[in-house]
Design brief:
five-stranded mixed sheet; alpha+beta; single chain; 5 strands
């Protein structure tokens, strides 16, 4: 274990300890260091007196409150230090209390307090050292450098504390941003699942209702057709249940082997089957036309293309009272144009519900656009533009 690693727990415990206990220990250490100058005086110096000890204590004891009242502590120590120097000539060799007070005011004080103390201590050192006869230049420099170094260390501590606070604040902001992004992603996923469920259920229920309404009419006249209608209802329900299980599967915690049983979401390749199923189930004449060279689509655009056509055909079955519907895919260099038209009642009907809103939302989510309105020959038309990525052709099944 390195020395730095061994020292880290000690520093951590020191920082998290009771501030009064730490500062009291520091004040006691400073008082002991100040007293040593008179307990063991140099030749010609006076021994420690009770007045001298009290003045020395005035430079150390206030340090107990240095973090609670840094400016007041610095003022008391700033007055006591020159008094100590004047009372005991020569002045103290090292201004222990003064350096601690100056460090504290530099680390915690306001700007004007820091500047006032720095200038005051520099002037005080010069005046005090001048009081001592025969003082050498290097001793002047030593005392001035002591003041400057104490102040510089305090400023470094101040900068380090501000830098640490900024890092903590930045980490907190990043954490909040990540939480917001996660919540936003969950909301978007819930909205996508809700749209998918709406499209699946609306499409399946519409086809099942059409077949159920036709069943009693043909059950006596054409039993085979009635049997086919019931088969269509059953197959439509099974297909809807399979798609719902696939969609809701993303909401469950995935278990080993579970993902392998899920089928991919339907895309453009599944459109021929969808158009054929709607035509057979609803008794519509349906047609799928393709122009241009098919191109690969992003996965979300693939699903959006399928759901848009599904929703448009569902609206045709539910609201248009149409006899035919046409789905046309126009592959351009930069987009896929989906056009669904029918010969029904047109846009005057207001029974489309949320279907048309869902079509616009799906197109916008993929960076595309959607338009709805009357067809060129009457009826209703849905035109959706979806962006296409350039790459190898994608075949339709």
């Amino acid at each position: 274990m390195s020395f730095r690693n061994a020292l880290t727990p000690v520093v951590t415990r020191w920082r998290t300890a009771n501030p009064y206990a730490v500062d009291a220990a520091l004040a006691a250490l400073v008082l002991f260091a100040v007293s040593l100058q008179w307990i063991f005086p140099s030749e010609g110096d006076e021994r420690l007196t009770w007045r001298g000890w009290l003045i020395g204590a005035a430079t150390a004891v206030p340090l107990i409150w240095r973090r609670r009242a840094p400016f007041a502590t610095a003022c008391v120590v700033s007055v006591a230090t020159p008094v100590q120097a004047v009372y005991h000539a020569p002045p103290p060799d090292v201004m222990y209390g003064g350096m601690v007070a100056l460090y504290t005011i530099a680390a915690q004080g306001r700007r004007w307090e820091r500047r006032l103390m720095l200038v005051g201590w520099l002037i005080g050192v010069v005046v005090t050292m001048h009081h001592k006869d025969g003082e050498r230049a290097y001793e002047y420099a030593f005392q001035l450098m002591s003041v400057v170094c104490a102040y510089a260390l305090g400023m470094l501590a101040r900068v380090q504390r501000a830098y640490t606070a900024e890092l903590e604040d930045r980490a907190g902001r990043l954490e909040r941003e990540r939480a917001a992004d996660t919540a936003r992603a969950r909301a978007e996923e819930r909205a996508r699942i809700a749209r998918d469920m709406h499209d699946i259920l609306a499409h399946a229920v519409s086809l099942m209702v059409v077949q159920a309404e036709a069943g009693p009419v043909v059950v006596r006249k054409d039993p085979e057709r009635a049997e086919a209608a019931f088969d269509t209802i059953a197959s439509t329900g099974r297909d809807a249940m399979a798609q719902l299980r696939r969609i809701l599967g993303v909401l469950k915690e995935e278990r080993p082997g579970e993902a392998a049983g899920r089928l991919p979401q339907p895309g453009v390749a599944a459109l021929p089957g969808l158009v054929r199923q709607v035509g057979q189930s609803a008794g519509l004449r349906t047609e799928l036309r393709t122009r241009g060279e098919p191109r690969p689509l992003p996965p979300d655009t693939e699903v959006a293309a399928y759901r848009v056509v599904q929703e448009a055909l569902t609206n045709t079955v539910k609201h248009a009272y149409a006899s035919c519907a046409t789905v046309q895919l126009d592959w351009a260099e930069d987009c896929l144009m989906l056009t669904v038209t029918d010969d029904g009642r047109g846009p005057s009907v207001s029974g489309g519900g949320h279907g048309l809103i869902g079509i616009r939302e799906r197109a916008a989510a993929c960076g595309g656009s959607a338009e709805t309105g009357s067809g060129p020959d009457g009826g209703f038309r849905v035109v959706v533009r979806l962006p296409v990525s350039v790459g190898r052709p994608a075949a339709l099944g």
